[in-house]
Structures are given as structure tokens and as C-alpha cells.
Design brief:
- The chain is an alpha/beta fold and 465 residues long.
- Helices cover 25% and strands 28% of the residues.
- The strands form 7 sheets. A 5-stranded parallel β-sheet has the order 3-2-1-7-18. A 5-stranded parallel β-sheet has the order 9-16-10-11-12. A 5-stranded antiparallel β-sheet has the order 21-22-25-24-23.
- Helix 1 runs parallel beside helix 8.
- The longest helix has 15 residues.
- It starts with a strand and ends with a helix.
């Protein structure tokens, strides 16, 4: 059995490792465009900040580790065309040579690419780039370009376009490095994957660490600074009311989301689904014979929403593992996503899982969201912190639909969002969360965990209605 994986990130490597686990005799080849297989893209902000001291530390596994696991790595190699009928993959090397790789099964893990918003100066033949101090951030190559700007140009200020997860992490990282940071978000609040009430708390945390935050503001143009102007770059924006905003900056980072990279599969005849991602069934099979796909390039089977597009590293790992098993003849299914996420912003953390009201109602639920606060551990033990939460359940059935949390980075925010994720995964009611047998000791928790107290608050509120 010869398996070929396209892509050396989360999905491709997870597929290759699973295939080798199940069949040590399987011939597994991984084709990737760069020389950085199995690197943690999620860890890039912490390398930029200096908390991760060397870029090589971002590797989940070294090249030697992967080769020892039995896979053949084709580094700096680009997949050009899939010959579905002939079961061959045309690849080219950086030297320009082309080669046909035969396969029995093919797994596409081509990932996603950064969205390049329609900002003057960012698109077109005269677009500014890393040499000018303007960066998109998604790959190790992007990371090296950012670091080159930081180390060679010694910027004093930065504008970050986008207030999502990566934008927030980079605001933290660049502030830690001593830059004056302006964060611009076109929506009414930063971190729009949580309700505005929690986004406002994230906003305050940014401001408390010196980050200037402009919301409801759209960047319209980026240009080189003219003689006599401050900074290397000139950023023009406008508020939702039409007020012009201009800022000088030494570097600009654009992080406004990603889109699935599907051109290779689409050209071969793969069906596309929501978000323009490759359509796959829960076994990660495409409509093409002997071709699977996984990761940020494919649609997401969501346990509450059905088919959508929600690219996450955790999802990519799971999908890749399923694809690797099924390529060897298995019939495992991806169990589905809940969109569980957590992000650190300076000393605080924000997390979510499941649905918010505006997501639940169109899916046929009757959502009710209740706000609540609780201590992360017994208040009499020093160092307790308040956790702000928003609990969402279905009014009719009482089913837990979602949870959002904001609290100190040491308040076990990630652990607590995982409690809710496990409960939603198993179709539990909000009330049943109180029955969970959770751990307790005064320095770390309470007899009723904060999440359980939030669930009880939801039950009280809905019983009165």
C-alpha cells in the first residue's frame, strides 16, 4: 500500500503517523512545499514574543523523528496536479524538475491560506510586502519575514489589522517586545467569536497593557510614509460613522482570517462545500475515488450545526488521523467539532465552545443565554480570581448548547471550557452539569465548580421565565 499525503502540517502528519501505526509496512510519502514539517503554527506568536526561544522548538517532531516513524518526506516539493484516473500525483521541486508519484490512496491536507482583504497597498502589482514592513502571518516563511523586520528594522510601532485569535496573540507578543501597538477591528468588538460582553473584557485587557484598540474601524489603505512623515508606513482607516483615521507605523501585520486552499483538489474534480472547502463525508472521503482530504482545506462536520467550515488545529489533527486510518481500509468517522477554542491575552484568557444565540437560533434551537460570575477557587484561599461566563442552553429541552468564559490565565479557563465541551458532546442538559463529579480542593476549586455554579444560575433564570 502506497499512501501519499499532500501537506506536512497537522492533518498530513497525523494521517501519516496513524497509517504507520496501523501498518508498519505501509509505504507513506509526505509532500510539502517548504522544509518545516509538523511545525506548530499556533506557537508562532510565542516565538515572536521571545517566550519560545528558538524557531526549531516549534517543531512537534523533528525531520529525523518523522523519518524514524517510517515516512518519506519530500521537502520543498509542490503538488501540481492529481491524475485521479491514473492514481498519480505530479510534483515539482524547487529546482524546477517534475516527477509523477504513484499512489494507492491520496490524502489532501493542503490547509488554508491567509485572507488578503481589499486594502489599497496590499493587493495588486504594487502591493507592499515584508521588505516594506507589511506582513501576513500563517507559515514559517511568514514568521521568518516578521522576525527579520523586528531584528533588522527595529520597529518602534505596529498596526495589527484584525482582532481575532492570532491578532490578539500578536498584540500581546509585540507589546512584550516593546512595540507600541494599535489593533484595528472592523467589527464592533475584538474577539468576535465570543459575545460582545466578553469581547469588551478582552478589549479592556489590551488597553490595560498599552494597546490602542479601534473597533468598528476598517483599514482602507497602507502606503509608504512620505518624506517628513513619522514611521515607515502610513495607515488610513475609517470608522463605521465615516470618520477618517490615520496612523503612522513602522510595521503592519494583517491577520484577518484564512480561506481553504482547494485549487489542487478542485482542479481534479473535487466537490466543494461551505466556505469553498473540499466536501468530505465523516470518513474524510472526497467524491474522488481513492482520494481523502483533511484539515483546514475541508468542510467541518459540526455536532450542533451540521456541515460548516471551521478551521482549527485540533480538528485538523483528528480529521487527519481518521483519514490515515480509513486510507488503509478502516471505517472510522470524525466525531464532529464544537468549535472549542481558548486564547491567552496578556494575563487573561477567553474561551468558548458550542453555540451562541445567533448561531443556535438558525439551527432550530430556542437559545437562552445567562451571564454569571464565580470565583475560580475558594475565596478564602489567597489569589482567587473571578471568572465571567455566559451559559447558553435550549429553553425547551434544557440542553446545554454553549459556554463562554473570561478570566485570569491561571484560573483553569481551558480546563473549564473542556468540561462544557465534554458535556455538549454527550448531549447533556444544563442542569445535569451539576451532577458531574468534579475535583475539589480549596486552592484550586470549590465544592461546586465555577462551571456548575453557572449552570445552576442558568437553571434558576429559566425556571423563573
Amino acid at each position: 500500500m502506497h499512501l501519499v499525503m499532500i501537506g506536512g502540517s497537522d492533518a498530513g502528519i497525523s494521517a501519516a503517523l496513524r497509517a504507520r501505526e496501523l501498518d508498519p509496512a505501509a509505504d507513506v510519502t509526505v509532500v510539502l512545499e517548504d522544509a518545516y514539517p509538523n511545525f506548530s503554527i499556533c506557537g508562532i506568536p510565542y516565538y515572536v514574543s521571545g517566550e519560545v526561544t528558538h524557531w526549531r522548538n516549534l517543531a512537534h517532531r523533528t525531520v529525523a523523528d518523522l523519518e524514524a516513524a517510517g515516512m518519506r518526506l519530500r521537502l520543498d516539493t509542490t503538488a501540481q496536479r492529481i491524475d485521479v484516473a491514473g492514481r498519480k500525483l505530479l510534483v515539482s521541486s524547487t529546482g524546477g524538475g517534475e516527477e509523477l508519484l504513484g499512489y494507492d490512496k491520496l490524502i489532501a491536507g493542503t490547509g488554508a491560506v491567509p485572507v488578503r482583504p481589499p486594502i489599497t497597498g496590499l493587493t495588486g502589482p504594487e502591493a507592499l510586502g515584508p521588505d516594506d514592513g507589511v506582513h501576513l502571518l500563517h507559515s514559517m516563511g511568514d514568521t521568518f519575514a516578521v522576525m527579520a523586520t523586528l531584528e533588522q528594522a527595529a520597529p518602534a510601532s505596529a498596526v495589527i489589522v484584525g482582532g481575532g485569535y492570532v491578532g490578539l496573540e500578536m498584540a500581546d507578543a509585540l507589546t512584550v517586545r516593546g512595540l507600541a501597538v494599535l489593533q484595528v477591528e472592523q467589527l464592533p468588538e475584538v474577539l468576535p467569536t465570543v459575545d460582545p460582553e466578553l469581547g469588551a473584557l478582552v478589549h479592556a485587557e489590551l488597553a490595560g497593557h498599552g494597546v490602542e484598540v479601534l473597533t468598528s474601524t476598517t483599514v482602507q489603505a497602507i502606503s509608504k510614509a512620505l518624506p517628513g512623515q513619522a514611521g515607515r508606513l502610513h495607515v488610513q482607516a475609517a470608522t463605521a460613522e465615516g470618520t477618517a483615521v490615520t496612523r503612522a507605523a513602522d510595521m503592519v501585520l494583517v491577520v484577518t482570517g484564512v480561506r481553504p486552499e482547494t485549487s489542487l483538489a478542485a482542479d481534479a474534480g473535487a466537490t466543494l462545500g461551505p466556505g469553498g472547502a473540499i466536501a468530505v463525508d465523516p470518513t474524510m472521503r472526497t467524491n474522488l475515488p481513492d482520494v481523502f482530504a483533511a484539515g483546514d482545506c475541508v468542510i467541518t462536520h459540526h455536532r450542533l450545526l451540521g456541515v460548516t467550515y471551521l478551521p482549527l488545529g485540533t480538528t485538523a489533527h483528528k480529521q487527519g488521523r481518521v483519514a490515515g486510518e480509513n486510507a488503509l481500509g478502516g471505517n472510522r468517522q470524525f466525531a464532529g467539532s464544537l468549535g472549542t477554542q481558548v486564547v491567552k491575552i496578556f494575563d487573561q484568557a477567553a474561551a468558548r465552545t458550542g453555540l451562541r444565540d445567533h448561531e443556535a437560533a438558525p439551527a432550530g434551537f430556542d437559545p437562552v443565554t445567562v451571564a454569571f460570575e464565580a470565583d475560580d477557587h475558594k475565596a478564602y484561599y489567597p489569589g482567587s480570581q473571578r471568572i465571567t461566563m455566559r451559559v447558553t442552553g435550549d429553553r425547551t429541552t434544557g440542553r446545554l448548547l454553549g459556554l463562554q468564559l473570561f478570566g485570569h490565565r491561571h484560573a483553569e479557563i481551558a480546563k473549564r471550557i473542556d468540561i462544557a465541551a465534554a458535556a455538549i458532546f454527550n448531549n447533556m442538559t444544563v442542569d445535569a452539569v451539576s451532577d458531574l463529579d468534579l475535583s475539589y480542593t480549596p486552592p484550586l476549586g470549590s465544592p461546586w465548580d465555577a462551571v456548575q455554579m453557572g449552570a445552576q444560575a442558568w437553571t434558576r433564570a429559566t425556571q423563573r421565565r
